[in-house]
Amino acid sequence: MYRIGELASLVNVSKRTIDYYTQLGLLDVTRSESNYRYYTEKTIEQLKLIEQYKKQHLPLEEIKERIRFVGNEPDSFQIEKILEKVHQLSAEMKNLESDILKLRPYLEGLNEEQVKMAMKHLSNQGMAFVQVLMILLGSM
């Protein structure tokens, strides 16, 4: 069990951030008889997930939903929400694939320097996605 200061030092975030996440319900906390807040190893994992999701520019409400699913057996309502999200992501991927197909002639016409400049503007996940699509498109 960790007190807030110990946790902040361990995960390199401010006590204020931990307090804010706790107030939002993003982090689990246990209170002692003297009203100290104690956090577990699970909290460290939750903070790592939050940081990962923040890098994906997800709003805190969506992060909260995703954290609820991690490590828990989803109920039927949650399963329905998961399936909706999968459907939404699938549609977004189809749209991205369509956009890449439209860009293919232009991408093939870029020189090496132009490709490097274009790649700088993409996130790591975006670059990986584009690379996979280009491989798939190349095999067509």
Summarize the structure in words:
The N and C termini lie far apart (55 Å). This protein has seven helices and three strands, in the order E-H-H-E-E-H-H-H-H-H. It has helices at residues 4-11, 15-24, 41-55, 60-69, 76-108, 112-120, 124-138, and strands spanning 2-3, 30-31, 37-39. It is mainly alpha-helical. The protein has a three-stranded antiparallel beta sheet with strand order 1-3-2.
Short summary of the structure?
With 140 residues, the protein is mainly α.
* N→C terminal distance: 55 Å
Find the structural class using helix and strand composition: mainly alpha
Low-confidence stretches: none
Average predicted confidence as pLDDT: 81
Q: Care to count the β-strands?
A: 3
* Order of strands across the main sheet: 1-3-2
Apparent shape: elongated
Largest sheet features: 3 strands, antiparallel
Order of helices and strands: EHHEEHHHHH
Question: How big a fraction of the residues is strand?
Answer: 5-15%
Q: How many helices in DSSP terms? A: 7
Helix content: over 70%
- Round the Cα radius of gyration to an integer and report it: 21 Å
